[in-house]
Amino acid sequence: MASNVNPTVRRRRLGQELRRLRELKGMTAEEVAERLLVSQSKISRLENGRRSISQRDVRDLCGVYEVEDQRIVDSLMEMARDSRQQGWWHTFGDIPYSVYIGLETDAESLRVYEPQLVTGLLQTRAYAEALVQGALPETSTAEIEKRVQVRMRRQERITAENNPLRLWVVLDEAALKRVVGSKLVMREQLDHLIEMSQLPHVTVQVLPFEVGAHPGLNGQYAILEFADAADSSVVYLEGVTSDLYLEKAQDVQKYAVMYEHLRAQSLNVEQSRQFIAKVAKEYAE
């Protein structure tokens, strides 16, 4: 597999193309499912890119949609073949949020709102270890180490020399005040946060308590955007047992507007650095 082939993104693109072909044919997902003697949920999962797509699936769907151009069929078959390859994260075994990692790996920019903790891409190893231990108390030491390693590997998108991820983070003041691990861990974490915020492609803003009620009170979310116009933006909502991915334009727009309000209500970049430095100094006392 070529190093630039991202199976998660290929599944999304292939699913979008299959949905387009279905809609051009004027068929519903239920009608397609009846023709192929499969469940409607399978068709939906194939179209939203949450399920691996076999070449047989592509062949059968192209038959239902009466695709006559063999070049289109061959292109879709190749995408199906690529979508079944493994990304770097698969070497770590079963990762609960592997779909998100695949999207993040290919994203051009990421906007994150974090109400309770420092976002994963800006965490130190010590902070990440303490966080996983506290959030998942019944997790084995080996599993904790695996999750931390994956987190550290994800951070390479931030420090990459070529095409680094454009990251914008709004942190609630609570994320700075919640002691994860120890005061020393927090001091190192906040110093690291200030250091990373100096990068030209990383922006960190703090949303202070004094703001009161704000649009982010419903919880954490992230907006991923991609360089390829064929890839629609995605809103990611992390859950305990399952995650939610929103791709409809109206849903993404609503969260994007909310994010603009959060940015406007937060301290500016320099004020945020000063605020973080002040809290870090308190941990040193």
From TrEMBL:
It holds the Pfam family HTH_31. SMART domains: HTH_XRE. Residues 18-72 form the HTH cro/C1-type domain. It comes from the Bacteria. InterPro entries: Cro/C1-type_HTH, DUF5753, Lambda_DNA-bd_dom_sf. CDD domains: HTH_XRE (cd00093). This is XRE family transcriptional regulator. It comes from Streptomyces incarnatus.
